[in-house]
Amino acid sequence: MAVTAVAVLAAGCAGADGEGTAAPGSPGAEGGYYLSLGDSLAVGVQPDEDGTPVETEEGYTDVLYRTLLDDDPGLRHERMGCAGEDTTTFMEGGLPDCEERYDDGEQLRAAEDFLAEHEGEVDLVTLTIGANNFTRCVRGVNAPDGRADSSEDIDIDAECVADGLDRLEDEVPEIAERLRAAAGPDTRIIAMTYYNPFLAFLLLDDDPAGQAAASAEEAEEVFPEHEARGGLAEEAVDILTEVNGTLTEAYEAEGIEVADVDSVFQATNREVPEDSGTGMPANLQNVCDLTWMCDAERGPDIHPNEEGAREIASVFAEEVR
What we know:
Layout: H1 5-12, E1 33-38, E2 46-47, E3 53-54, H2 60-71, E4 76-79, H3 87-92, H4 96-99, H5 107-117, E5 122-128, E6 138-139, E7 141-142, E8 147-148, E9 155-156, H6 158-183, E10 188-192, H7 208-211, H8 216-222, H9 232-253, E11 257-259, H10 262-265, H11 282-290, E12 291-292, E13 301-304, H12 306-320
Helix pairs in contact: 1-2, 1-12, 2-12, 5-6, 6-9
């Protein structure tokens, strides 16, 4: 697992003499703002005891903010994300539950207005956007809340994926450009790559090398009465690799730093750790440990659990350092 956000940030904010220091316009400059933007990950969505996705105060942005407070007690968190946002709705609105949160119905415009109103006061902006271009492309999973739908078997809609990629390629560069212009050159902006929750479909893989020691009984418990086309998890990995590459290129072109969240989940690591107690490959084990995808009572649900949120926050903290 990654080192904790607290440890990373404490080390990163310490000067050569061991005392905390921070340049103006960076976390630690007393009394500024941390602005968090994006989708359900930004607002800590997790399933409740009935499996219904609800916002919590345990998202990665909340964990990161509490960590930043250790070094800057005056820092304020402007929490502006909304569950369900994709790149199109982030720019143009269109989701009723999200539109009502913003004066003009658009999260990006609300962010631009906030940055203009608080010019020079925003120390850090984080962004999580793009995954919802694709969550609805997985048939057999109820995309709005991320839970499995037993009415149909699991597959990936290729036309939906192609549309999602087209919108990602067209819209993320504009999102990055507008955010950078609104924030100015000195404000830290950190965006993230995504993990692949659909690696949990390896539980449905008939190939012993793919499923490792994950039992058919466990698969039936998590995905009752489901079947998945062979190679579905690997196809999801290929799609996510392209998604993360597109995100990274667009962000870096505007001087936006990238928190490589996918590195924590090790999407391509099919090795079974020597100390594994389950026999699962590392990528499947990480998805089961850090999200609700393998939870038969509250899931399967694509969102990170509290441990997953802490791990994501730690990757952002490394970038802050």
